[in-house]
Every structure is written in C-alpha cells, then in structure tokens.
Amino acid sequence: MTSPTITVGPLYRQDAEACAQLEKLLFPGDDPWSARMFRDELAVGHFYLAARDGTRLAGYGGLALIAGPPHAETEIHTIGVHPDYQRQGIGRRLLAGLLARADELSAVVFLEVRTDNEPALALYEDTGFERLGLRRNYYRPSGADAFTMRRPARQP
Questions:
Q1: Range list of β-strands (E), 11-144
Q2: How many Å separate Cα 68 from the centre of its chain?
Q3: d(Cα 15, Cα 49) in Å, to the nearest integer?
Q4: What's the CA angle centered on 67, arms 19 and 130, to 5 degrees?
Q5: pLDDT tens, 26-35?
Q6: What does the CA dihedral 99, 103, 104, 107 come to, rounded to 10 degrees?
Q7: What are the pLDDT digits (tens) for 37-75?
C-alpha cells in the first residue's frame, strides 16, 4: 500500500541531480543516467513524472513520443523507485500516469525491461504489456538481456 504522503506530479529540471543519484543506487552494474541526461530529456519535451515524499524524491518515470498521430507511438524510457519506497505501489502509480498520457494520444507503448526483473515484468504484464522479443546484452556494461514489450493503443 502506498504511503499517504506520496504525491505524483511533474518532474522538474532541479530534480535531475536527485534522479542521477537514485540511478546510481538502482543500477550500479549498468550505465546509470546522469543529471544532464535527465535535463536533456525534459528539455526536448518528454513527459516525466516524480513521486515525492514531501520534498524527497521517491521515484521517477519518463515517456517519450516516438511517432505522432494518426499512429502514435510512445516509449517508456525509465521508471525508478528508491529502495526505501519499493513494494508500496509507487512504481504502479508512476506507470499509470505515463500510460494515461499515452492514452491521451491513443498511442502504442513500448519499453525494454531486464529479463531478471520479475517485479517489473509482473507489473508490465498486469497492465497489458506483452513480450515481443529479446535483446541480448542490452544493458551495459553488465551485459544483461532485456525483453522488448508492447501495450496496444487505448482510447482515453
């Protein structure tokens, strides 16, 4: 159950450093995103959400528009939740916000997820994603594999 103090809203440029620190914590064996990468994502207009416990960043998620209407496609670039806040439904809330934005565009949604990330796989499959294929050695430098997943477009 999510803590009642958690709010989900826009991610701001000033959150970039906190996101980068959380990336280092969550993805130590891979190539975590830098603060600049988060700022760049926001600068080009990608849709990002933050989960906050007061002023503390508890998690983040981002969605990119890949192709516009009439056959809109989006891609979830990232979702991360601080270990102190995992298993409280925050990742699900972030995903719901990203999917709501995709649904506003009637967009297909794509993502990649580590093949060994069972909680994320269960969440994605529970929200209508299907596995399309396998990308070997997708994550660097760990060499971990990823599933490519897709959720069909839905009307808002």
A1: 47-53, 56-67, 73-81, 108-114, 130-135
A2: 20
A3: 10
A4: 75
A5: 988 888 999 9
A6: 110
A7: 999 999 999 999 999 999 999 999 999 999 988 899 999
pTM score, whole prediction? 0.93
Amino acid sitting at position 86: Q
What is the identity of the amino acid at 15?
A: D
The set of residues, in sequence order, having a beta carbon less than 8 Å from that of 138 and lying 6+ positions away, is 112, 144, 145, 146
Of the candidates 56, 24, 52, 28, the residue with the CA atom closest to the CA atom of residue 38: 24
Are the C-beta atoms of residues 81 and 114 closer than 8 Å to each other?
A: no
CA atoms of 27 and 29, how far apart (whole Å): 6
Q: Residue 20: exposed, middle, or buried by beta-carbon count in 10 A (0-12, 13-18, 19+)?
A: middle
Sheet bearing 146-151, strands edge to edge: 6-10, 47-53, 56-67, 73-81, 108-114, 146-151, 130-135
Domains of the chain: 6-151 (3.40.630.30)
